């Protein structure tokens, strides 16, 4: 509407820059007069004169003028704009730049929030013992020996190994069982399928702590059958005490991921495999799982990381000794003595503990990518 | 190589009967096509042979063994699927050798057989390609090679050409025929395309609504259809049908009468409602009808639409005054319309009054209520009451 009022008036456009506010005021009056809008009454004419400079310093009149300038491609006007307005105008006419800028802002933000804690850990680890106060952005001193010391103070590698074994075992159990469940839920029709899936979902809603007391009781009970395996017949202080509950807790998520993936494999491929000579199970392992590699990798990595990071059961299901399958968590807490806490070693141990997972994710990522490119399910 | 026998196969999905009491026997080395419209149960029938579907009732035999409860892998069958179903994560060699590698063959034997199979389907030099690098026809060949490499007793092909373009389809059709001739394996072929069924098969099994309508050599299905469904399904364009009534000395429709001795129509008596069927190529212009041995009396008609096909012209005829014609009705079943096929030299215009005759030796009569065929060809009047050429094949099936 404002464009209408200024159209017949090429000379009346005010300057865009902020230092010309007074001139803008004058121009605004002139514009209004020229546009004929103020012919209605003298009161109408005087009101903008009086009000505009007071309320917003003439910008009200500037903006519509600028927009007009953009769309009319008035080359001279470009030179008169302030840097911010020019940037806005550029963004409107060239939105790609804005999106790219937003992408970088978001990326840098997320990278910062993710990587800064690692940076901070590294600073703490590199700072010699007893000087942890007052670390700003650089370490107080330089002590890379902490990364060696962590293995000398306690057998930290043993804890890492324990955690790795527990996480790997849980992941294998979860993938095998969830694959069978995913096959049944994703590819078969049977009565009670939906209620069963809902049951799995409901179980995943239970807080893990709710299971702890009965499980702890159970794992401390001695069973004669287990004696040849665990010595005293109880699961406490064995990897089983962590693998069993953690596998169960992270199973529903894997089942749902794999169900979705397996359901998408065309029936014809499974039929072809079965006619060619596999059983249903053979078709699952030879055709369906390889073609669902991205889903299997996703479920596997999520399970591995979740079990590796798990605190509650890992902390309570062993007595904290590495020979009793205490996981990495107990190792890190092991640097905490009664009279001193060796923060630099805890930080170094934390960084070392991340390495296996980091390697796994990098490897799995390659698998995911290769699975996607080799898949090519065009049916 | 083996015979295949289906005994009273029925397959139900809940309340839906997909296959309804189908029994048939396929000879060793025979090429049998299951044909029918979508949802007629032809694919399900084949899947019971493959073992992918367990029949609700009935038994399946391959060779002399009952295989009803055997897993697909133990039946000695190989299958080519409509969607081709190559394993996308394996190259051509791995795809073809998949079945062999699951059994205990040594590497040398596998290589020899894969190369032999690739040779037959002309895939030399492509064994290391991935399926997504192949064209549609090449993929189909890989699927066929995968099927033949195991020397199966029975080949099952479920619309293998349906996803190919028209030109390639005709090409692959001849290749499949050649392959069948070379290998001599029993083939069961499923298609909804009656042209494929007619050209490739030793025998055609026509199915509709889960039931077997007729199993016979292609030309028998064409010339002596067992019932109205087969008559309408086999042949393109479809046979003309007209509601008619059996009267003394003839069959009477709304617009014309075909003379015949009603005593030669078994299973029907005077006054019964029948359906008269005649194929478009058995409708002739009265002016050129001298060559026809058993023409009917001339029938007055008006041409409606001409469809020049190149080698012939399809002429849509409107019988009687033609005003009552409704556009919605299928010309094949509308009693006052007739589709005629004439040679391209025939000079005809649209909206022209013509006189046509039917070739009585190729007129079919069907029971109007059951749809079963009564008579194929009416020539009895020409030899003083005797019926020389009447092929009164009352189809038992």
Automatic annotation (TrEMBL), chain A:
Annotated Basic and acidic residues bias: 1-26, 46-70
SUPFAM superfamilies cross-referenced by the UniProt entry: MetI-like (SSF161098)
Membrane topology, as annotated: Multi-pass membrane protein
All residue ranges annotated as the ABC transmembrane type-1 domain in the record: 160-364
Region Disordered, residue ranges: 1-75
Compositionally skewed regions (Polar residues) per UniProt: 28-44
Family, similarity comment: Belongs to the binding-protein-dependent transport system permease family.
PANTHER family membership: INNER MEMBRANE ABC TRANSPORTER PERMEASE PROTEIN YCJP, MALTOSE TRANSPORT SYSTEM PERMEASE-RELATED
Protein name: Carbohydrate ABC transporter permease
UniProtKB/TrEMBL annotation, chain B:
Matching Pfam families: ABC_tran (PF00005), OB_MalK (PF17912)
Broad enzyme group: translocase
Gene Ontology MF, one: ATP binding
ABC transporter domain: residues covered: 4-234
Keyword presence, Cell wall biogenesis/degradation: no
Gene3D superfamilies: 2.40.50.100, Nucleic acid-binding proteins, P-loop containing nucleotide triphosphate hydrolases
Reaction(s) the record says it catalyses: L-arabinose(out) + ATP + H2O = L-arabinose(in) + ADP + phosphate + H(+); D-xylose(out) + ATP + H2O = D-xylose(in) + ADP + phosphate + H(+)
EC numbers, comma separated: 7.5.2.13
Keywords, comma-separated and alphabetical: ATP-binding, Nucleotide-binding, Transport
Localization (cell): Cell membrane
GO cellular component: ATP-binding cassette (ABC) transporter complex, substrate-binding subunit-containing
A biological process term (GO) from this entry: carbohydrate transport
Membrane topology of the entry: Peripheral membrane protein
Family from the record: Belongs to the ABC transporter superfamily. Carbohydrate uptake transporter-1 (CUT1) (TC 3.A.1.1) family.
Main function: Part of the ABC transporter complex XacGHIJK involved in the uptake of xylose and arabinose. Responsible for energy coupling to the transport system.
Record's subunit section: The complex is composed of two ATP-binding proteins (XacJ and XacK), two transmembrane proteins (XacH and XacI) and a solute-binding protein (XacG).
PANTHER family: MALTODEXTRIN IMPORT ATP-BINDING PROTEIN MSMX (PTHR43875), OSMOPROTECTIVE COMPOUNDS UPTAKE ATP-BINDING PROTEIN GGTA (PTHR43875:SF1)
Protein name as annotated: ABC-type D-xylose/L-arabinose transporter
């Amino acid at each position: 509407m404002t464009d209408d009022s200024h159209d017949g008036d090429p000379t009346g456009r005010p300057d865009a820059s902020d230092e010309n506010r007074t001139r803008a005021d004058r121009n605004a009056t002139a514009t209004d007069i020229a546009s004929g809008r103020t012919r209605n009454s003298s009161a109408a004419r005087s009101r903008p004169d009086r009000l505009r400079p007071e309320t917003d310093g003439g910008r009200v009149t500037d903006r519509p003028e600028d927009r007009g300038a953009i769309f009319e491609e008035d080359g001279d006007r470009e030179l008169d704009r302030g840097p911010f307005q020019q940037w806005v105008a550029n963004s409107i006419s060239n939105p790609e730049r804005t999106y790219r800028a937003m992408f970088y802002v978001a990326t840098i933000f997320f990278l910062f929030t993710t990587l800064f804690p690692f940076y901070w850990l590294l600073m703490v680890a590199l700072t010699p013992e007893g000087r942890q106060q007052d670390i700003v952005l650089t370490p107080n001193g330089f002590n890379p020996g902490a990364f060696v010391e962590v293995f000398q103070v306690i057998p930290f590698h043993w804890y890492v190994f324990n955690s790795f074994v527990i996480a790997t075992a849980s992941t294998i159990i979860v993938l095998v069982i969830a694959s069978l469940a995913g096959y049944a839920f994703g590819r078969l029709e049977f009565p009670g399928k939906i209620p069963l899936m809902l049951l799995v979902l409901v179980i995943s809603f239970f807080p893990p702590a709710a299971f702890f007391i009965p499980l702890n009781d159970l794992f401390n009970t001695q069973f004669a059958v287990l004696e040849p395996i665990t010595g005293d017949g109880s699961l406490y202080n064995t990897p089983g005490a962590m693998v069993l509950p953690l596998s169960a807790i992270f199973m529903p998520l894997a089942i749902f991921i794999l169900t979705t993936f397996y359901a998408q494999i065309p029936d014809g491929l499974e039929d072809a495999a079965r006619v060619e000579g596999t059983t249903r199970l053979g078709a699952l392992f030879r055709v369906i799982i390889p073609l669902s590699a991205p889903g299997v990798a996703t479920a596997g990595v999520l399970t591995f990381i979740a079990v590796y990071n798990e605190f509650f059961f890992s902390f309570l299901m062993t007595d904290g000794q590495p020979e009793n399958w205490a996981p990495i968590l107990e190792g890190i807490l092991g640097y905490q003595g009664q009279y001193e806490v060796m923060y630099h070693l805890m930080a170094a141990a934390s960084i070392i503990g991340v390495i296996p997972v980091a390697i796994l994710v990098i490897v799995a990522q390659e698998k995911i990518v290769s699975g996607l490119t080799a898949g090519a399910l065009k049916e | 190589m083996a015979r295949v026998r289906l005994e009273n196969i029925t397959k139900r999905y809940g309340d839906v009967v997909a296959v309804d009491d189908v029994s048939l026997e396929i000879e060793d080395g025979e090429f049998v096509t299951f044909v029918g419209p979508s949802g007629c149960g032809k694919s399900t029938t084949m899947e019971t042979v493959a073992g992918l579907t367990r029949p609700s009732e009935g038994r399946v035999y391959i060779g002399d063994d009952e295989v009803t409860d055997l897993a697909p892998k133990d039946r000695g069958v190989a299958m080519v699927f409509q969607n081709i179903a190559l394993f996308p994560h394996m190259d051509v060699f791995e795809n073809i050798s998949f079945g062999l590698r699951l059994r205990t063959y040594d590497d040398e034997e596998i290589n020899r057989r894969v190369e032999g199979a690739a040779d037959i389907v002309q895939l030399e030099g492509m064994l290391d390609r991935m399926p997504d690098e192949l064209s549609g026809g090449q993929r189909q060949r890989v699927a066929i090679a995968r099927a033949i490499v195991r020397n199966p007793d029975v080949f099952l092909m479920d619309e293998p050409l349906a996803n190919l373009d028209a030109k390639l389809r005709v090409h692959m059709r001849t290749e499949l025929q050649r392959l069948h001739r070379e290998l001599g394996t029993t083939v069961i072929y499923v298609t909804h395309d009656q042209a494929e069924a007619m050209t490739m098969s030793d025998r055609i099994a026509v199915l509709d609504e889960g039931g077997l309508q007729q199993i016979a050599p292609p030309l028998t299905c064409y010339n002596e259809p067992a019932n109205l469904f087969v008559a309408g399904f086999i042949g393109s364009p479809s046979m003309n049908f007209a509601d008619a009534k059996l009267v003394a000395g003839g069959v009477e429709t709304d617009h014309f009468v075909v003379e015949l001795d009603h005593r030669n129509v078994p299973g029907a008596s005077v006054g019964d409602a029948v359906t008269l069927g005649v194929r478009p190529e058995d409708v002739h212009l009265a002016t050129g009808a001298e060559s026809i041995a058993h023409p009917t009396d001339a029938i007055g008609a008006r041409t409606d639409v001409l469809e020049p096909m190149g080698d012939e012209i399809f002429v849509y005829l409107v019988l009687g005054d033609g005003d009552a014609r409704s556009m919605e009705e299928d010309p094949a079943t509308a009693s006052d319309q007739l589709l005629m096929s004439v040679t391209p030299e025939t000079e005809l215009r649209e909206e022209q009054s013509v006189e046509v005759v039917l070739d009585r030796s190729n007129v079919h009569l069907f029971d109007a209520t059951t749809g079963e065929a009564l008579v194929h060809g009416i020539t009895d009047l020409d030899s003083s009451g005797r019926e020389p050429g009447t092929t009164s094949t009352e189809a038992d099936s």
